[in-house]
Amino acid sequence: MKFTELALQGVWLIEPKVFPDARGYFMETYRQELLEQHAGSVAFVQDNESKSVRGVLRGLHYQLPPFAQSKLVRVISGAVLDVAVDVRAGSPTFGKHVAVTLTSENRQQLFIPRGFAHGFLVLSSEAIFAYKVDNVYSPSHERSICFDDPAIGIDWGMSADALLLSEKDRSRAKPLSEAEV
Questions:
Q1: What pLDDT does 43 receive?
Q2: Which pLDDT score is estimated for 3?
Q3: CATH superfamily, with its number, for domain 45-178
Q4: What is the model's pLDDT at position 14?
């Protein structure tokens, strides 16, 4: 596996080695010791999967301590624009973001540490998205930041009226300036 730290400290793009042959392919999607060499100690407790259609935007979500989560995300089928936003109080890159296109073809993964909001937009007709988390979901600790907050300036590459958002993301998301961190 190849690990590349992105512009925000602690966020890693991971490219697995893929071994194709006449039958298909084989790849390791996770090896704890390699992740820990780059990202430090992580103990995943749950795997999640979602299926979404083109234009679905999920996020930007994060959880407050003691239920903050690190995530290791990948696309099983389709393509997404995956975004991580630094919401670590006092961080020199607070409010900055990184965005990468994850696809079933490039098989890249993104490691997002605690202290980041996360979201993704489905670019293909549908996508199956998988992620590991190192803490359980706690509804009372979940927070959302507005996907279109100009203070963050994410270029989603799609017009806002073409996006499909949950009612929760429409009604509860706050601008970064009002985010609890």
A1: 96
A2: 97
A3: Jelly Rolls (2.60.120.10)
A4: 98
User: What pLDDT is recorded for position 1?
Assistant: 94
> What are the distances in angstroms from CA 170 to CA 74, 118, 130, 153?
25, 16, 23, 18
141 included as an active-site residue: no
146 closest CA partner among 121, 122, 176: 176
- List 62, 97, 118, 131, catalytic entry: 131
pLDDT at 65: 96
Whether 118 is catalytic: no
Phi, psi of 141 (to 5 degrees): -105, -5
Report residue 92 as tokens: 């020199």
pLDDT in tens, 82-100: 999 999 999 999 999 999 9
Burial of 30 (0-12, 13-18, 19+ CB in 10 A): middle
Q: Is the Cβ–Cβ distance between 117 and 84 less than 8 Å?
A: yes
Low-confidence ranges of the chain (pLDDT < 70): none
CA distance 114 to 86: 9
Per annotation, catalytic residue among 25, 30, 61, 62 = 61
Q: How far is residue 34 from each of residues 15, 96, 136, measured CA to CA in Å?
A: 12, 26, 23
